Amino acid sequence: MKKTVPGIIIFLTCFYNSVAQVPAFIKDSLNSYIEQGMADWNIPGLAIAIIKDGKPVVMKGYGVADIQSKEPVTENTLFMIASNSKLFTGTALAQLEYNGKLSLDDKITKYFTDYKLADSNSTSLVTIKDMLAHRLGTQTFQGDFTFWNSNLSRYEIMEKMRLMEPAGIFRQTYGYCNSCYLTAGEIIPLVSGKPWEVYVYDSILTPLGMSATSPLGYNMQQMPNAAKPYSTAFTGQLTELPYDRLDNLAPAGSIVSNIKDVSKWLMMQLDSGRYNGRQIIPWKAIQKTRDAVNIISSRRSTVNPTHFTAYGLGVFETDYSGRQVFWHTGGADGFVTNTCFVPEENLAIAILTNNDNQQFYELLRYQLLDVFFNLPYTNRSKKALPHFEEDQNKTIRQTEALKARVQGIAPPMPLQAYTGKYNNRFYGDIDITAAAGHLQVKFSRHPGLTALLQYMDNDEWMISYSNPAFGFFPLKFKAANNKAVAVDIKVSDFIEYDPYRFTRE
Q1: How far is 130 from 294, CA to CA, in rounded Å?
Q2: DSSP designation for 349
Q3: The pLDDT of residue 11 is above 80
Q4: SS3 494
Q5: Burial class (CB in 10 A: 0-12, 13-18, 19+), 394
Q6: Beta strands 256-257 and 79-80: pairing type?
Q7: Which tens digit of pLDDT belongs to each residue from 265-298?
Q8: Assign residue 258 a region: left if phi > 0, alpha if psi is -120 to 50, beta otherwise?
């Protein structure tokens, strides 16, 4: 017993001295700031890690992982990190380039000879780097209603990309693209002999000791310590959502992790690819992921002290009060997360949450950057909250107004005039049937997903989905010869922005 006491005293003294070097806000105000923010933004659970000078100065959970069981969030609570998976994919491909297995400038058709985009010139030119930098010219989230949570295989998703008509210009327009990351990631098995998930596990997760992290989200509801996903979108009420099934888009966003493991990933980023003195990823590969490939903006922000924003290979980058900051966010139904690292300051931040309808997870990151960079204090959460609440209340009023218009009025044509099979060339088929005086939609690419169509008035219906994440929207059929011939179907912007036109067969 006597032999252990000096060691404990030395450890506590060193830890306390380390904490003493961080800003006073972290020691005195961080807990209350987070607790108030979670209350204001209706966030059940949050986990945070702050890494400074090579060690965690904060690693803590707040709130609950499950509002029913009240299981507390800890550093071991699992969250979907969603698009924070992308840097793992970019890093894996940069590592394979370093090892001579591929070049990031290789054309996709070198590996998939039948691969096509909507434009033949883009097909012949598109490279791995183009895919990783979101520069196909497609719109942000384009195709995701078809891909997200669908029963399509990875190859089938790649096949459908030839039907994605770009809204912008190849290599000139930034458009955030999940299927692009899938395509790039599917080259990994061809050059390494391992599926993406196995390569990432063997080459990154295992060497870093990220033992609680799963590269795939399959059966997350059965994983020990898994947080449940929630949202307040559309109704303002905290609603539990089904877990997303994203393994068919795995290189874009399937990783499940906790704050303890994510901290190891960030410490490696701060130490030039090393962790615990061991080189995990070659420094040249790390550098390659951070090279700016796609310029998103080169104009001074009116909100933050930044002048440019660019995208590398799975990571955003910007200047922030004179420092180079790298970051990414991740959003899955019920989860939003972010990771951030500032090598010049030897600083990294990770924040994981289980309510997808809030901005606090990002505001907290900015608040911490302000603190560490000694910028004037402004409570970013309180400043942003009224604008969010105004938008949220507007959405709630719109949803309530739609529901109020459902008064049992008969539609202008018999229900059978609307039923049948409808097709969208990109999505595939949906079936519309009559059920209990309403219409029901079944989606061929989303087993288990249904939508209820309730007639309102003025030829408009309200569509609501069995998965609340998809939202509530007005809907109109196009009719000819006393029967419906087409319908436009909208889902939440969190999934995809534009509606799909389905035509009756």
Answers
A1: 9
A2: E
A3: no
A4: coil
A5: exposed
A6: antiparallel
A7: 999 999 999 999 999 999 999 999 999 999 999 9
A8: beta
- Beta-bridge mates of residue 440: 433, 452
Q: 3-class DSSP state for residue 31? A: helix
Task: Quote the CA–CA distance of 233 and 132 in Å, as a whole number.
Answer: 30
Round to whole Å and give the CA distance between 367 and 142: 32
- CATH (residue range 415-504): 2.40.128.50
How does DSSP assign 411-446, residue by residue?
PSS-GGGT-EEEEETTTEEEEEEEETTEEEEEETTS
Tokens standing for residue 267: 């410490």
What are 92's two structure tokens? Answer: 């894996």
CA distance readout (Å), 312 to 134, 198, 339, 340, 501:
9, 24, 15, 14, 34
Task: Please give the pLDDT value at position 4.
Answer: 35
Stretch 119-137: mean pLDDT, rounded?
97
Residue with tokens 């300051």: 345
Q: Which DSSP category does 356 fall into? A: S
Residue 150 near residue 104, CB atoms below 8 Å:
no
Instruction: Report the SS3 class of residue 231.
Output: strand
DSSP SS3 for 48: strand
- Residue among 196, 180, 90 at smallest CA distance from 141: 180
The H or E element spanning position 296 is: strand 294-297
Residue with structure tokens 């061809």? 190
Residue-wise pLDDT for 164-213, tens only, equals 999 999 999 999 999 999 999 999 999 999 999 999 999 999 999 999 99
CATH match of 23-85+212-391 with 2.40.10.120: no
Percent of the chain as helix, strand, coil, to the nearest 5 = 35, 25, 40
Distance CA 355, CA 231 (A): 5
Q: Tell the residue number behind the tokens 């008064």, with chain if given.
A: 407
Is residue 229 within 8 A of residue 239, CB to CB? The reply is no
First to last CA, the chain: 80
The residue type at 93: L
Indicate the pTM of the whole model.
0.94
CA distances from 281 to 96, 102, 285, 288, 372 (A): 10, 16, 7, 11, 28
Domain locations in the chain?
23-85+212-391, 415-504
